[in-house]
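Consortium newsletter contribution from the modelling node. Members have asked for a concrete example of what our holo predictions look like. Here is one, prepared for the zinc ion complex that several groups have been discussing at recent meetings.
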Amino acid sequence: MDGPSGARENLQGLCGPCNRAKTAVRLGPMSPDQLAVRSAFVVRVEARSPARACDDDVGWNDLQPQLLERIRAWWSSALPTEYLGRVEFAPDGRPVIIEPASSDDRGR
Ligand SMILES: [Zn+2]
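And here is the predicted structure:
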């Protein structure tokens, strides 16, 4: 049992006191990098208006699909011709190359 993984082999049944004792052993001061990440997160959580478009839980549902479509269009326009028709997009907008073009069908 090590770290926050929820994988089955990483799980252990503990009563409340044992769970708290095991957790306390692992607690320690945050590193400067961890503090910076935490501070940036707290600023976003406590902001009166969304700091980023994706922090807007109302507007983001409308905006996200539009941005994704723009990303897909940009990727399609930026791809070398040998990859045209060979790329799909992951749910997060990342392009996924289905198969690399073979050298004998370049330039189509
Ligand atoms: Zn116990």
